[in-house]
Amino acid sequence: MELIFSLADIEIAAEEFIHFLKDRTVVAFHGNLGAGKTTFIKAICKQLGVKENVSSPTFSIINQYTTANNKSIFHIDLYRIKDNEEAVSAGVEECIYSGDLCFIEWPERVCMLPADRVNVFIDTISERKRKLMCKLPS
Ligand SMILES: Nc1ncnc2c1ncn2[C@@H]1O[C@H](COP(=O)(O)OP(=O)(O)OP(=O)(O)O)[C@@H](O)[C@H]1O
Ligand SMILES: [Mg+2]
Question: CATH: 3.40.720.10, 2.60.40.10, 3.40.50.300, 2.60.260.20. Which one for 2-135?
Answer without folding.
Answer: 3.40.50.300
